Amino acid sequence: MTAVSEPKIAPLEDAVERDLYDVTIIGGGPVGLFGAFYAGMRQMRTKIIDSLPELGGQLMALYPEKYVYDMPGFPKVLARDLALNMIEQGLRFNPTVCLSEMALKMEHAPDGTIVITTQKATHHTRTLIIATGAGAFSPKKLDAPGVAEFEGRGVFYFVRNKAQFAGKRILIVGGGDSALDWAMNLEPIAESITLIHRRDKFRCHEESLDWLMNRSQVTTYLWHELGRVEGNGCVERAVIFDNRTKEEKVLEVDAILLNIGFSADLGPIKEWGVRLEGNSIPVNRLMQAEDRNGNIMQGVYAAGDISTYEGKIKLIATGVGEICTAVCHAKTQIDPTAKLFPGHSSNLSL
């Protein structure tokens, strides 16, 4: 990465006229929320922009009733509860929150500040932290007879309310972490669970696979796929087949949960001139992003799942550390007299 010249600082009177923020965070998930808290702790005027109608990111939107086991301090915690705690923490210093706003365009103004354009407004900021996760997620759809017809009437791609599966005969399709996590979460309340996977290799944590094969009551069919869904107004049967022999089995089920993966799309970020590697933004040790020519983009940082570097591990715990780094370097950019590290919070009066 090449160095950049000393950043320009917008005059105070100009900042007031344009409603200029110290830092704007794109993304209201757990990483963005912790970034807002940390920026507030550093007395930075902070804004969060998120395309979703509520804060919490994937924790709230995709799996609110799934347990999270790899968050420090929590042996296990419901994703919704973790999100609510992080929202409370993230809003402690009263950041401005703009929901249901898609960040469409990002450009630098002549004075070095950054202009973010959404479908609703124009936002001005001294620094920008991109914390959008892997982008907008949409489930991979299964193209089998009856699936689209019964979507929402027994066929599901997400679990928003676990209670609706109580006492049900459930078929889970998939062999990744989501499929096994939901089998584990729903087994205590379901009448029965059957899981089918199209091959004999799983893409999940070793502990989850051991539970499925050795300790669960889940009926598992390997080398099987969903052939069609049948019912009268709602799901009543699933026809599955062995993809080696084509032999069919009919299962009496009340609900089908399809966990065959998600497609991620960075959307307009791809047009911002930021250098990308796949769906990720390469960053340096300061969490700074580059332009497509390999030059550091003044005031632009990335943290969480959207950022990448050698040896990157994608965890919430990793992301919150990354965004602290980004916030501290953003702070010293706009105020060169500020300390990079403010000290431990236990030594502060908050």
UniProtKB/TrEMBL annotation:
<feature type="binding site">
    <location>
        <position position="305"/>
    </location>
    <ligand>
        <name>FAD</name>
    </ligand>
</feature>
<comment type="subunit">
    <text>Homodimer.</text>
</comment>
<dbReference type="GO" id="GO:0050661">
    <property type="term" value="F:NADP binding"/>
</dbReference>
<feature type="binding site">
    <location>
        <position position="50"/>
    </location>
    <ligand>
        <name>FAD</name>
    </ligand>
</feature>
<dbReference type="GO" id="GO:0050660">
    <property type="term" value="F:flavin adenine dinucleotide binding"/>
</dbReference>
<feature type="domain" description="FAD/NAD(P)-binding">
    <location>
        <begin position="21"/>
        <end position="319"/>
    </location>
</feature>
<dbReference type="InterPro" id="IPR050097">
    <property type="entry name" value="Ferredoxin-NADP_redctase_2"/>
</dbReference>
<dbReference type="InterPro" id="IPR022890">
    <property type="entry name" value="Fd--NADP_Rdtase_type_2"/>
</dbReference>
<keyword id="KW-0812">Transmembrane</keyword>
<dbReference type="GO" id="GO:0004324">
    <property type="term" value="F:ferredoxin-NADP+ reductase activity"/>
</dbReference>
<feature type="transmembrane region" description="Helical">
    <location>
        <begin position="20"/>
        <end position="39"/>
    </location>
</feature>
<keyword id="KW-0285">Flavoprotein</keyword>
<keyword id="KW-1133">Transmembrane helix</keyword>
<protein>
    <recommendedName>
        <fullName>Ferredoxin--NADP reductase</fullName>
        <ecNumber>1.18.1.2</ecNumber>
    </recommendedName>
</protein>
<keyword id="KW-0274">FAD</keyword>
<keyword id="KW-0521">NADP</keyword>
<feature type="binding site">
    <location>
        <position position="103"/>
    </location>
    <ligand>
        <name>FAD</name>
    </ligand>
</feature>
<keyword id="KW-0472">Membrane</keyword>
<comment type="similarity">
    <text>Belongs to the ferredoxin--NADP reductase type 2 family.</text>
</comment>
<feature type="binding site">
    <location>
        <position position="346"/>
    </location>
    <ligand>
        <name>FAD</name>
    </ligand>
</feature>
<keyword id="KW-0560">Oxidoreductase</keyword>
<feature type="binding site">
    <location>
        <position position="63"/>
    </location>
    <ligand>
        <name>FAD</name>
    </ligand>
</feature>
<dbReference type="InterPro" id="IPR036188">
    <property type="entry name" value="FAD/NAD-bd_sf"/>
</dbReference>
<feature type="binding site">
    <location>
        <position position="58"/>
    </location>
    <ligand>
        <name>FAD</name>
    </ligand>
</feature>
<dbReference type="InterPro" id="IPR023753">
    <property type="entry name" value="FAD/NAD-binding_dom"/>
</dbReference>
<dbReference type="Pfam" id="PF07992">
    <property type="entry name" value="Pyr_redox_2"/>
</dbReference>
<feature type="binding site">
    <location>
        <position position="137"/>
    </location>
    <ligand>
        <name>FAD</name>
    </ligand>
</feature>
